[in-house]
Design brief:
alpha+beta; 5-stranded mixed β-sheet; binds FE2/S2 (inorganic) cluster
Length: about 150
């Protein structure tokens, strides 16, 4: 058994210690917000936070995050998350939607670090999140809108 803290809840999971965190979240806990894309840390569909830092849950063994605070897309809250959600809705960013939880998790992490990113900083932060529907332009616009919202 591995003890985890997921979205503020402490729990124990039965998966083998080397099982990727993404499998535990989706298959054992029913938290399907983080998606499976590549399974090789290349696409960003599976981004969650460990102690506030983005990680790629498809390649992280569950034992390595024991004792850390894991946040999944289902557990997002706070001012930055609200601003990003609002901007995503305003610009109708999602197309098929599959990559969007990972895009949003990465965008929030960027804005937490840098509330007023330039276009180049946005591109740099987001360039390892793949979108097969090519929503990149709307993602960049929405991040800039979220930044404006945060300025108040
Ligand atoms: S599924 Fe984890 S990065 Fe692609
Ligand atoms: S919205 Fe379809 S993969 Fe990004």
């Amino acid at each position: 058994m591995t003890k985890l803290t997921i979205n503020g809840r402490e729990l124990e999971v039965a998966a083998d210690l080397d099982t990727p965190l993404l499998w535990v979240l989706r298959d054992e806990l029913g938290l399907t917000g983080a998606k499976y894309g590549c399974g090789q840390a290349l696409c960003g569909a599976c981004v969650v936070y460990a102690d506030g830092a983005p990680i790629r849950a498809c390649v992280i063994p569950v034992e390595s995050v024991a004792g850390q605070k894991i946040t999944t897309p289902e557990g997002l809250d706070g001012r930055v998350a609200d601003a990003v959600r609002s901007a995503w809705t305003k610009h109708d960013v999602a197309q098929c939607g599959y990559c969007q939880p990972g895009q949003i998790m990465t965008a929030i992490a960027l804005l937490n670090e840098n509330p007023a990113p330039t276009d180049a900083e946005i591109d740099d932060a987001m360039n390892a999140n793949i979108c097969r529907c090519a929503t990149y332009g709307r993602i960049r616009t929405a991040i800039k809108t979220a930044s404006e919202i945060l300025k108040g």
